[in-house]
Design goal:
- There is one protein chain.
- The chain is elongated and about 95 Å long.
- The protein is an alpha/beta fold and 438 residues long.
- The longest helix has 20 residues.
- The protein has twelve helices and 19 strands.
- The strands form five sheets. The protein has an eight-stranded mixed β-sheet, with helices on both faces. A four-stranded antiparallel β-sheet has the order 5-4-9-6.
- It binds zinc ion (ZN).
- The site of zinc ion has 4 residues, from loops.
Length: 438
């Protein structure tokens, strides 16, 4: 089952169309791990949320790495012997290998071919290629175009610069009632590619936008940074803040129609792991869960042993499970507003749990209290499933021993978190529970 069966709320649907529109605006920009395409993308996000841009100079050491030179590109093309531009950066920024050094040269086809990349198995798709840490140049084109090229002299032009500059990352901090934080991180270094990574960028933007309207228990930190080097940079420059991060999610590949896939934090039993698994289990959709692996996205930095933060990765189809990944086929047709809306809803349900998940103490722990005398039988009379809530009250009373969270009780009982939470609120009203440690 891969089709969307999640019943979407009006808020999620509205966010879905907003996210899809923002994705369309971001799509043409030529992002990279540094440079103006990345900067302009973050500025576009600034129109939606209070995002602070940070610039880190070339050469700055960040743990075992250094900030690379800044790359910028204005144009790039290959002109055929007949004068036609057979590859043109102005049509798609995927056509130039990301981080290509400048070139302006004429050469025979055989020589040019050493710098051309295509996908023989998908003759109409253009691949996405980078050369971040090796100074090189190249072009990407469809196999069909490549096969149509005739012998002769070709002109290759890349009007780019690779110079000392800065790496840019964006950070949005929303202050809640406590200093404890929930972290969201999305990489934003890929050019015209939608599911990986524009979907993560627009989802976290709209989550931040939504959270600004909410009364928050946790403070929230949203990081928009180039993959790998960006997360490493943030961690190197903000190490003292990391102890505040209680839960976190890395967001990417959340715009396609595939089922949800959760990769747990390195800890494996973190509260965020339980909250995501609980949400997916009760979503009515098929889903998959796996243990932590030290690759894929920036969870591998947040979960490196020196940090070991409670950060998991919640995607739809993972990047290595769809052929369109890192090709021109990961475009606006591959994603949809309804799928973004579904992801928004699942992410906000996870946050709903984390915000409300507390431990309580039963104030009447010796034998069960008389609920009838307090008017608690039939207290949920307006609800069709009043009996469910009465059972939920018994579970909540029994396990509110200061050791179990509401989520633990929900998982033990098999009830949805929302049901246990409502039962707990009712018991709190009647002084049968108090917050543990409060
Ligand atoms: Zn990628």
């Amino acid at each position: 089952m891969t089709e969307e069966t999640l019943k979407l709320t009006p808020e999620a649907l509205e966010a879905g169309s907003g996210m899809f529109k923002l994705m369309g605006d971001l799509y043409p920009l030529c992002r990279s791990i540094t440079g103006n395409g990345l900067r302009d993308s973050l500025r576009m996000i600034q129109r939606h949320i209070p995002l602070e841009l940070h610039e880190v100079p070339t050469g700055t050491p960040v743990f075992d790495w250094n900030i690379p030179k800044e790359w910028n590109i204005r144009d790039g093309y290959v002109r055929a012997p007949n004068g036609e531009k057979i590859v043109d950066f102005q049509r798609s920024c995927l056509h130039v290998v990301n981080y290509s050094i400048p070139v302006r040269a004429k050469m025979p086809l055989a020589k040019l071919k050493e710098h051309l990349h295509s996908l023989p198995d998908h003759p109409d798709w253009v691949p996405y290629r980078t050369s971040y840490y090796k100074e090189a140049w190249g072009f990407c084109l469809s196999q069909r175009t490549l096969e149509s090229l005739k012998e002769g002299e070709y002109e290759a032009v890349i009007d780019s610069s690779l110079e000392d500059g800065n790496l840019t990352y964006g950070e949005c901090y929303l202050k809640g009632a406590t200093q404890d934080e929930i972290l969201f991180s999305s990489h934003c270094c890929h050019p015209s590619l939608c599911n990986d990574n524009l979907s993560g960028m627009v989802l976290t933007t709209f989550l931040a936008k939504y959270l600004q309207t909410c009364k928050l228990r946790y403070s929230y930190r949203f990081i928009f940074a180039p993959g790998t080097i960006g997360a490493i940079t943030w961690l190197a420059q903000n190490e003292s803040k990391t102890s505040r991060i209680k839960h976190g999610l890395v967001a990417a590949c959340v715009g396609d129609k595939g089922k949800f896939k959760y990769k747990k934090s390195r800890r494996g039993d973190a509260e965020v792991d339980k909250a995501v698994v609980h949400t997916l289990k009760h979503s009515g959709q098929d889903y998959a869960v796996s243990d932590f692996t030290p690759y894929d996205y920036d969870e591998r930095q947040y979960c490196s042993p020196g940090f070991n933060l409670s950060v998991g990765s919640l995607t739809r189809t993972p990047h290595d499970a769809y052929q369109e990944n890192h090709t021109s086929a990961d475009n606006m047709d591959f994603v949809g507003p309804e799928y973004l809306a579904g992801s928004f809803q699942v992410y906000s349900n996870v946050l709903g749990i984390l915000e409300q998940n507390k431990k309580y103490l039963n104030t009447n722990p010796k034998c069960e209290p008389r609920l009838g005398k307090r008017g608690l039988y039939g207290a949920f009379g307006g609800k069709k499933d009043a009996n469910t809530y009465e059972l939920a009250m018994q579970w909540t009373l029994n396990f509110s021993d200061g050791q179990h969270t509401l989520l633990d009780i929900a998982d033990k009982s098999g009830f949805r978190f929302e049901v246990i939470k409502e039962a707990a609120f009712k018991l709190l009203e009647h002084n049968l529970l108090v917050e543990a440690g409060a």
